[in-house]
Amino acid sequence: DQQVKQNSPSLSVQEGRISILNCDYTNSMFDYFLWYKKYPAEGPTFLISISSIKDKNEDGRFTVFLNKSAKHLSLHIVPSQPGDSAVYFCAAKVSGNTPLVFGKGTRLSVIA
Amino acid sequence: KAGVTQTPRYLIKTRGQQVTLSCSPISGHRSVSWYQQTPGQGLQFLFEYFSETQRNKGNFPGRFSGRQFSNSRSEMNVSTLELGDSALYLCASSRGQGHGETQYFGPGTRLLVL
After folding, report:
1. Do B107 and A51 count as a contact with CB atoms less than 8 A apart?
2. A6-36: per-residue pLDDT in tens?
3. Beta partners for B92?
4. Which residues, including other chains, have CB under 8 Å from residue A93's CB and lie 6 or more apart?
5. Within an 8 Å CB–CB cutoff, is residue A25 touching chain B?
6. Strand, coil or helix: what is B85?
7. Residue-wise over B87-96: b if at least 16 C-beta within 10 A, else e?
8. Which residue among A32, A36, A100 sits closest to B99, beta carbon to beta carbon?
9. Which residues of A touch B7 (CB under 8 A)?
10. Pairwise CA distance, residues B87 & B11, whole Å
């Protein structure tokens, strides 16, 4: 049973436009959410996180939105740049010393 | 500050052999988690070690094991390798203090089993 789902395996966006990556979760106990970016042959790089007490967190071009009632979060990248082309993983965890649960990733391609 | 390092970066083994992978966490981090990434499966959690003790365990067979040393460095071992064990193995470190904590990943070890 997949607790964190990224239903779009891939997404193409034009340079300068907004990229929106979506993530759904089923475990209502999750209270901390993260996004990671991964380039080929490298480990995932932490991008941004959000706690369940917030519904939005912003860091430069990256904004994460959390809708707890819908068990949905999204990552917005504005404006998108060719260097943003990578696989993006959504991850979630329950408070305490519990492991991260990852989605299967969405491959973003930003076209110049 | 140096990041998470993993050795070796690439490894080729044959079925039935065993393999040991190594991970050195960021200085000051006491938690090391291991993940397996295969195409189309995302990152699957293997186990987490904190202060030399396994604190969490994923749903993998007993052929997958690990340990952590007093300097927080960790190793994972896979015995009796199968073709399906071909994957990218990632380790991640954190302070290990729980809520709101970010894990930082190493570059991974790519294992190919022939």
Report:
1. no
2. 999 999 999 999 999 999 999 999 999 999 9
3. B33, B105
4. A30, A31, A32, A99, A100, A101
5. no
6. helix
7. bbbbbbbbeb
8. A32
9. none
10. 10
Block residue for tokens 């990229």: A19
- CA pair distance B93, B95, nearest whole angstrom: 7
How many CB atoms neighbour CB A71 within 10 A?
A: 17
Q: Minimal CA–CA distance to A19: which of A6, A28, A10?
A: A10
Sort strands A62-67 and A72-77 into parallel, antiparallel or unpaired: antiparallel
| pLDDT tens figures, B19-78 | 999 999 999 999 999 999 998 788 999 999 999 999 999 999 999 999 999 999 999 999
Handedness of CA B66, B67, B71, B72 (dihedral sign): positive
Q: How far apart, in whole angstroms, are the C-alpha atoms of residue A39 and residue A83?
A: 10
What three-state secondary structure class fits B69?
coil
Q: For residue A90, give the nearest of A71, A104, A78 by alpha carbon.
A: A104
B85 φ, ψ to 5°?
-85, -5
- What percent of chain A is helix, strand and coil (3-state, nearest 5)? 5, 55, 40
